[in-house]
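Contributing new complexes? Match this layout with tryptophanyl-5'AMP.
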Amino acid sequence: MTDKKTILSGIQPSGAMTLGTYLGALKNWAALANEFDCYYMIVDMHAITARQTPSEFRKIQLSQLAQYISCGIDPEKNTLFIQSHVPAHAQLGWVLSCYTMFGELMRMTQFKDKSSKNEENINAGLFTYPSLMAADILLYQADYVPVGADQKQHIELTRDIVVRFNGIYGDVFKLPEPYIPKVGARIMDLQTPTNKMSKSDISDGGCLLILDSPEDIMKAFKRAVTDSETQVRYDVDNKPGVSNLMQIYSACTNKSFGEIETEFSGQGYGALKTNVGEAVVETLRPIREEALRILADKAYLEGVYKKGAEKASQTANKTLKKVHKKIGFIPSD
Ligand code: TYM
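Output block (do not edit by hand):
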């Protein structure tokens, strides 16, 4: 047992990870290892709410694990695992779906968004997804959940489930808090800067991947949509494209919006686009190179996720046992 607070987060292997995933979530995970007890998952069970091609799906998961590590998430200091390797997620997910209200699930923005984009596959898993996500978090009694802004609603629902469950059975679950970065929490599409950058819309150059080549990154930034003015100024409502470029630049260089406005004053958008592109290339270059190196060592990756699942199971099973007892299931051992 340690006195450290617990962190848990996960990313869906529903496609390659994007610059948005990196700046909104992954970038912040690495720094937490010394201060917290950290669990990071590859949420394969969530990803099957959309159809996956099995061979491609396996590749994406291993690549995602290699990228976690190349982003600085050291498997010796963090617990890295694949969600389906810890059956307690499915088990608690079911229990919590019985403590999540239909009306609550109907209000989830991600459900509304994904079901409207994919009308031929609005499956029950997509609908009950937030109950499984609550189980992910609560199994580890996480204090903080580092995510981008789009996941805040799911964490608020998790908190509502905790209050409801604890209200009936006593102090079973810890109340988790979202941990959302000040800059980079909502990276927008480079071609349609009013939409979130998303791995499901990678066709038109508006979405960049962590493993994209420097040439592709520069090309995407040079084509990025801005506006008809010339002034570099942060104004999300009226200048979403420029504001997004400033967010990305700020997240990569730690410069404030004021400093960025001064740096590009009188220079127009061309200079901004080139500089943001170069900052992203330099941020991602070491991550990409290291990920490709690690990915070649399948035995190492297997060792990491097996050890991770073992450690994660120990914590998760403790919580599951407690829950089963509280709700009146008869223990099997
Ligand atoms: P997912 O896989 O859609 O995204 C993974 C993480 O990346 C963040 N993110 C972004 N941040 C900023 N700008 C963007 N354009 C952007 N796109 C993605 C997301 O906010 C997220 O933090 N439901 C989750 C996965 C999940 C989970 C969990 C997360 C399952 N169980 C338990 C935390 C704890 C999801 O779909 O994330």
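Reviewers usually confirm one structural detail per submission. For this one: The radius of gyration is 21 Å.
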